[in-house]
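Q: A small favour: would you put together sequence and structure tokens for a protein?
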Amino acid sequence: KNGLRTLLVLLCTAVAIAGARQIQALIALIGSLCCVPLAFIFPTLSHMRLCRPGLAGQIVDVAFAIFGSLLFLFTTTRAIMDLRSGV
């Protein structure tokens, strides 16, 4: 237990030291990987599964899911490019 905790603390410390200049890009990557699906994709999929809307509701849900997926791909790609360029 303590060895794993120590390893995690050392890993987080190493990431913080190595990425101090790129913290903005790292935060953007975390945001794109976590927040976009949480805000756009998961709610629409849950609504489709739980509420079983009619055809118009399904079209709107699918449109939001596609928009969220495209936004997810765009923001993740942009964050990775920022990390590689050292911004």
User: Anything to note?
Assistant: The helical segments are 2-18, 23-51, 55-85.
